[in-house]
Amino acid sequence: MFNTKRRWLIKTSAAAMTVAVAPQWSNAQSTPYGPDDLKSMLTPLGAIRAGNADGTIPAWTGGYSTVPPGYEQGQMRADPFADEKPLFTITGANASQYQDKLPVGAMAMLQKYSDFRLDVYATHRTAIAPQYVYDNTYKNASTAQLSADGNSVSGAYGGIPFPIPVNGHQVMWNSVLSWQGTSIHFVSDAYVVTSAGELVFESRAAAWEQYPYYFENGESRFNGFVYDALIVPIAPPYQAGGSILLHQPVNPDVTPVEGWTYLVGQRRVRRAPELQYDTPDSLTGGVVNWDEAYIFNGKFDRYDFNLVGKKEMYVPYNMNKAWNAPVSEQYKANFFGPDISRWELHRVWVVEMTLKPGSRNVDARRTIYVDEDTGAALAGEMYDASGSLWKFTHGMPTICPDIPALITHKSYVVYDLHAGNYAAADVPNNEAQPAYKIVPEMPASFFTPGRLAASAGGF
Questions:
Q1: Which residues, 6+ apart, have CB-to-CB distance to 321 below 8 Å?
Q2: How far is the CA of 448 from the CAs of 185, 230, 259, 269, 455, in angstroms?
Q3: Which secondary-structure segment (H or E) carries 9?
Q4: Between 26 and 177, the higher pLDDT residue
Q5: What angle do CA 141, 303, 160 make, to 5 degrees?
């Protein structure tokens, strides 16, 4: 069986074929698995179905799909594990015992702040997607290919493209194309907490997002975009009206990244090609850059992606409690509230990103931790040009059984370890609602510059 799978990989896997012709795909690795293993030894999205040897990671048994009676779209999702108590707590005093299973950035936070802690709970493998996403992922395992430079994907639709990844590009494309639903409307906040502990309300925005890549039975009309997003700041007053429109393609070599912004002072819509790479994001007070949103976001062309491998790590997971909390519990001096955060032991892919020769970005190197169950990034570190650890970021994975999905990095926090401040973005709370509401499919005309002007009150 092993030899048969190896022959299949050599014949059909773009990554396997490019080890010789595209060595810039860093550290390509072999795998004993083939597509049919997605129906047996592996989960439908490519994770190891079995638990670990000591039982601290259970087997995947289908994910979490229990919708509470009476739930209505737009309401907060209840915490299904609200009655659980932490198994143990990691602090700066005992962090060295767990260092081999902690993100480097989490370890740095524990060392920097004596009152920072990680409450570790029992592991629940809640990742889930609709059956059609599983079916498409199975097809993608045989048809998806990377471009020669690894910067785009072809031959994939409606599922993660590389459920059996063999290099860093494939792992990161799985994250960018991870299942987050199809048509969504939500209101969320962005806050900055200064090094002095002052809470600064940066923005409240209404967002409409759509993922044409994930339309069920929509491949024949696929427009080439991963997602379309219309973001309309509604508070505070100085942010209100400065709306943003984004189209993110699967293949930027064929379909360019498109962005527009409505300039309130000019009452005009203008193209915004600068909404990429390390351009500071005004909605987070400039603490977060555009390509740091959602752990990693945007184009691949400035980095090499080295696949280090897979390991067991303590990562944020099943954080419904954080979404349900009031602002006063979410934002503490120096860090996001430990009382409402939940960390669990999961298997993650580790990818090292390094700037290509001749490329520029303020983040010279990054480490990204990608969930094996969803294919989505959970946490990461950013290093500056001197090689010093600069930022630590993590998502707030939240169970949405009505979709069904585990929304991994839609809400996220970025800690600036140099400046001592941090920002959190796209975070719902008991004031910012609806919370990730599933809505009917929106027409393509909804995501146009004309609609952008109309949403901002322009002409």
A1: 79, 82, 340, 341, 342
A2: 17, 9, 10, 11, 11
A3: helix 2-12
A4: 177
A5: 20
Distance, CA of 22 to CA of 28 (rounded, Å): 10
DSSP state of 444: G
pLDDT at residue 254 greater than cutoff 90:
no
Three-state DSSP state, 450: helix
Q: Is 82 exposed, middle or buried (0-12, 13-18, 19+ CB in 10 A)?
A: exposed
Pairing of strands 244-249, 225-235: antiparallel
Residue 327 DSSP SS3:
helix
Give the rounded distance of the alpha carbon of 82 from its chain centre: 24
Question: By the 8 A CB rule, do 84 and 119 touch?
Answer: no
Give the start-end residues of each E strand in 219-302: 225-235, 244-249, 258-263, 268-271
Find, among 315, 333, 93, the residue nearest to 197 by Cα: 333
Dump pLDDT digits (tens) for 407-426: 999 999 999 999 999 999 99
Q: What percent of the chain has pLDDT over 70?
A: 93
Exposure string for 184-223, b = 16+ CB within 10 A, e = fewer:
bbbbbbbbbbbeeeeeeebbbbbbbbbbbbbbeebeeeee
Mean pLDDT of 385-401: 97
CA 118 – CA 282 distance, rounded (Å): 30
- Are 304 and 353 within 8 A, CB to CB? yes
The residues, any chain, with a CB within 8 Å of residue 192's CB and separated by 6 or more, are 199, 200, 202, 284, 285, 287, 421, 422, 423
**b/e 421-436 (16+ beta carbons within 10 angstroms → b):** bbbbbbbbbeebebbb
Give the per-residue pLDDT at 95.
98
pLDDT tens per residue across span 286-309: 899 999 999 999 899 999 999 999
14-21 and 2-12 helices, crossing angle to 10°: 70
Q: Which helix (H) or strand (E) holds 5?
A: helix 2-12
Length of the chain: 459
Greatest Cα-to-Cα distance within the chain, rounded to the nearest angstrom: 66
